[in-house]
Design a protein that fits this description.
Elements (H helix, E strand, L loop, with lengths): L6 H66 L15 H4 L2 E3 L2 E6 L14 E2 L4 E2 L5 H5 L6 H13 L32 H5 L37 E2 L3 E3 L9 E2 L5 H8 L3 H9 L8 H4 L33 H7 L3 E2 L5 E3 L2 E2 L5 H4 L7 H11 L20 H4 L6 E2 L4 E9 L6 E9 L4 E6 L1
Parallel strand pairs: 4-5, 7-8, 10-11
Antiparallel strand pairs: 1-2, 2-12, 3-12, 6-9, 12-13, 13-14
Length: 440
């Protein structure tokens, strides 16, 4: 018997086929959209990764740029008149390829503005050599907190049981200022203030009250902490402005003193006769030693009478002579001296931690160095400041310098889109031609 397909059945079959085709089309459309979305996401990820790499290398190029800026600085002293400091056109949004970079200083300044350039680490106090008295004079510091830091620091120095073992020179028990978080008596508010990342900038989370950490007063002014004034990296070479090793007035013989310092024999005799010296300023203020003169032997009748030697008495160096030779002399044979503070760059708060530096003297120092044609060329130049006497200069002479060798770099690289950023914090030692990366 033959089955005959009716018309309604054929219509139903066609409808099913059409529905299936439509479902297939929908599924294909969904797959196409999904594939398109995955492709778009992949492209976004690829672009984001590419932009991140680009921003990072722009920040890295800023480090090399900072090196070149320092290499071009041939001035015999380091001051804020040099080309590494406060030059917007040289350090802000510097274009390179399809991106840019910016360099800025984290050193506190009186105007609370961003200073574009490098940070002189010798403008800060080196925590490895500072005294409790100096620390206690920093803003918001107490004597108890200062002493706690020194006690903790000294506990890191290995104790030797061998009395004959020579103590290493320039020992640095603290390798980063962030280690001060380990001192129990200190809290983060004292150490960091509002600048929790130590970049010297007022970031959005540091100016929003208590919405995000850290808590701040939302006054649009960055409150700096103790760490803004501290470093572990500063040192100076024991050399004069021409790169010559300084003359040790505690050990040099007469010939060296006369030839190297261009002084006469009577002054050289006085220098040798009045040793030892605790600082070079002792040449001006040390009480003279009266040499013991042995009784003269009775001359024989055959010996001629000795001729008097006019001017043979040793002579103290004059103030003018001292200023002339101050940069050429030292009291130690050490090749480097850690922690010297550069009086050309130290901020007011740091200057005020130095012995005998009153607010009036500190203001006079800052006023003098604001002259674009001036910088202190040696510590003896401080004698030209009102109320600075040799007696006042003596206790700080071994703590200060007019040169710098270590600079901190805060570098931000930007990709082409200007939205993708990369940050690097590094230390440059231009004498050793080395870079130490602290944060990236």
């Amino acid at each position: 018997m033959t089955t005959i397909t009716t018309k309604p059945n054929r219509i139903r079959q066609r409808a099913i086929v059409i529905v299936m085709v439509l479902w297939i089309i929908v599924l294909l459309a969904i797959l196409a959209v999904g594939l398109s979305q995955l492709t778009r996401i992949d492209n976004v990820i690829r672009k984001s990764h590419t932009d991140s790499i680009s921003a990072h290398w722009h920040a890295k190029s800023a480090i090399a740029y900072a090196f070149s800026i320092l290499a071009q600085d041939t001035n015999p002293t380091d001051s804020y008149n040099d080309n590494w400091h406060d030059k917007d056109q040289d350090f802000k949004n510097v274009k390179i390829g399809d991106g840019s970079f910016t360099l800025w200083s984290d050193l506190p300044n009186s105007s609370d503005t961003i200073i574009f350039g490098l940070t002189d680490e010798s403008a800060k106090i080196n925590i490895n050599v500072v005294t409790a008295q100096q620390l206690s004079l920093l803003p918001d510091m107490s004597e108890i907190e200062a002493q706690a830091i020194i006690t903790w620091r000294d506990s890191l120095i290995p104790v030797s049981t061998d009395d004959n073992e020579k103590k290493p020179e320039n020992l640095q028990p603290i390798s980063t200022i962030r280690q001060l978080q380990w001192v129990p008596q200190l809290d983060n508010e004292l150490l960091f203030g509002e600048d929790t990342n130590l970049n010297g900038l007022l970031d959005s989370n540091e100016n929003d009250g208590d919405q995000t950490k850290p808590d701040d007063n939302k006054d649009s002014i960055l409150q700096r902490g103790l760490l803004a004034y501290l470093t572990v990296h500063s040192y100076d070479l024991n050399q004069d402005s021409k790169g010559n090793q300084r003359i040790n007035i505690n050990t040099a013989d007469a010939d060296i003193l006369i030839d190297a310092l261009q002084i006469d024999a009577m002054v050289a005799d006085w220098i040798m006769q009045n040793r030892p010296y605790e600082s070079i300023i002792d040449l001006l203020i040390k009480k003279e030693v009266t040499p013991e003169i042995p009784p003269a032997a009775a001359p024989s009748s055959s010996d001629p009478a000795p001729d008097p030697i006019p001017g043979a008495k040793p002579q103290r160096i004059t103030r003018e002579q001292f200023i002339e030779i101050a940069d050429k002399i030292t009291i130690t044979d050490s090749e480097t001296i850690p922690g010297l503070i550069n009086i050309n760059t130290a901020p007011l708060a740091v200057l005020l931690t130095l012995p005998e530096i009153t607010p009036a003297i500190a203001d006079a120092i800052i006023t003098a160095r604001q002259n674009p044609e001036f910088s202190f060329t040696s510590i003896a130049d401080l004698l030209e400041i009102d109320n600075v006497t040799p007696e006042k200069l003596a206790p700080l002479a071994n703590l200060i310098t007019t040169r710098s060798n270590i600079f901190k770099v805060h570098a931000q690289g930007s990709a082409k889109d200007k939205a993708t950023l990369s940050y690097i914090e590094a230390i440059i030692d231009r004498q050793k031609n080395q870079t130490l990366y602290l944060n990236w």
